[in-house]
Structure of Cut9 interacting protein Scn1:
Amino acid sequence: MATRAQDQELVANAADEYGVTGQDVELANDTERWSKEHKMIPAFGWHPWFSHQMFDEVEYDGVSSLTPEQKIAHYQSVLTPKSEDRNALLALPDPRPFGHFLAQTRDYLTRYPLALIGEVGLDRSFRIPESWLPGQADERDDSLTPGGREGRKLSPYKVSLDHQRKVLFAQLRLAGEMQRAVSVHGVAAHGLVHDTLAETWKGHERKAPSKRARKRAEQQAFAGPSSPAADEDDNTTKPMPYPPRVCLHSFSGPAETVRQYTATTVPCEVYFSFSTTINAWTDQDSDRPRTGKVEAAVQQVPDDRILIESDLHTAGDRMDEYLEEIAKKICTVKGWEIEDGVRRLGKNWKRFVFGAA
């Protein structure tokens, strides 16, 4: 998944070499095996940690770059608390026009028909890192993708949620336009993430089913996933303003929030992914291993909407170990046998990524 300006093309290059193709998907459906060469699904997005590095051209008469004074004004408007340190603001990265990024993302999604949008979202807790001190940038590790924190201290400044929401909302609308799944990051902002997503499907909510329809759905539940059936006159090929599928990754919200997303009126398929690296699980060796907040959320998630992840920045044996660990954790909480659980999780992943039933 791409997160900022510096890694968009790197993800594209990796997809050219290792990306899963439509033919791979067809073969996997037939044989349940994946190509040894093609094992990657690219995703293109702008993470909230870097959202301050984006400016709205409309607010600056359509310019493609900002003057020093405009750069200062931009950062003073999107960072909180407001900084009067002009030199510090000028030392921050030159912000990029958001419209150019959206056009680039649209091109990538066209170029890679299986690509997702991500990682995007909202983060109420993070603070931007301090600027590089003189000489530090020249001594950085060139093997790392530029633009990360790389050990720098955190500043006292956060990106305003209004600005984060503007960046997120535009990417969600693009996901609707291109009918691509989205990976969403949310920290200390579960209600705001929900409200932002709900804004994209406002006016397109599904009608609450009648009692008779609910009973019929219960009787037929074994035949398909838990998402509501489309209306007979619903044109499912028509682009909508909301994403077709969303994954709330390393979900840390309460069970009540799960119920909001899985309400029958929600037209978007919302998935919930969990990890052992981020989520705060109850000690499984304790006397009450399934009573924590995360466990309660997992139990509330419909069986066909749960996903797993490593949330690790590198692939390899360590990542595989984390995936095995979280798969076992989910199976324990859900009460699934491990083989059945892994099969369910694999099916859920394919549906989230490819939209296949």
User: Anything to note?
Assistant: The radius of gyration is 21 Å. Strands lie at 43-44, 54-55, 79-80, 96-97, 116-123, 158-159, 182-187, 245-248, 269-274, 306-308. The longest helix spans residues 161-178. The chain is about 40% helix and 10% strand.
